[in-house]
């Protein structure tokens, strides 16, 4: 018996790489219980399409142009209670993973995984569970066994990342930070993404608050 539209899981794909989007859509459309309802190329598109389409699940790239996938996830989770998010990424980066979980993602999947991983992730999350592939699950185990040791504030940041964060704590915009540090605005945005991931925060406001509490800024 074939699945009808009413009992198929509706999925939005959010990724800025057209080849990956196409391959993922093809994979998903081969599964009778799934229905791809749209494709978003940027963070802003992902947010708008989630509001419009109200899919049951979003497969969200971590690094999207405009709003990051983590920023979008936090907003979606806060405003669309019936939509779950699975993060998909090429990055072998545990900091991004923990930031995504703090934002409310229900799963985290490496893009190098096979179709079986994608299918299992969707089935698990759609039924109310959490899904991590084997590598990510090991990060969780390590974190629970040996949580981060408290020490000086933000030892995980490089000197340049700390300088950017201090200017964020001062309330400076990207253009001012770029001029002050002799960087391009695009580079400043890239620093923001790395800082947010390492500090497990999802936006500038949260990063600034955390930095000020740690004594950064003037």
What features would you describe in this structure?
The chain is globular. α3 (69-79) packs parallel to α4 (94-103), α7 crosses α9 (185-199) and α8 packs across α9 (185-199). It has helices spanning 18-29, 43-53, 69-79, 94-103, 115-126, 134-145, 159-169, 174-181, 185-199, 204-213; strands at 9-14, 34-40, 57-61, 84-89, 107-110, 131-132. The protein has 2 domains: 5-145, 3-Layer(aba) Sandwich (Rossmann fold), CATH 3.40.50.2300; 159-213, Winged helix-like DNA-binding domain superfamily/Winged helix DNA-binding domain (Arc Repressor Mutant, subunit A, Orthogonal Bundle), CATH 1.10.10.10. It starts with 8 loop residues before the first strand and ends in a 5-residue tail after the last helix. It is built from 10 helices and 6 strands. β5, α5 and β6 (131-132) form a beta-alpha-beta unit. A 6-stranded parallel beta sheet has the order 2-1-3-4-5-6, sandwiched between helices.
What is the strand and helix layout of this fold?
Blueprint: E1 9-14, H1 18-29, E2 34-40, H2 43-53, E3 57-61, H3 69-79, E4 84-89, H4 94-103, E5 107-110, H5 115-126, E6 131-132, H6 134-145, H7 159-169, H8 174-181, H9 185-199, H10 204-213
Parallel strand pairs: 1-2, 1-3, 3-4, 4-5, 5-6
Helix pairs in contact: 2-3, 3-4, 4-9, 7-9, 7-10, 8-9
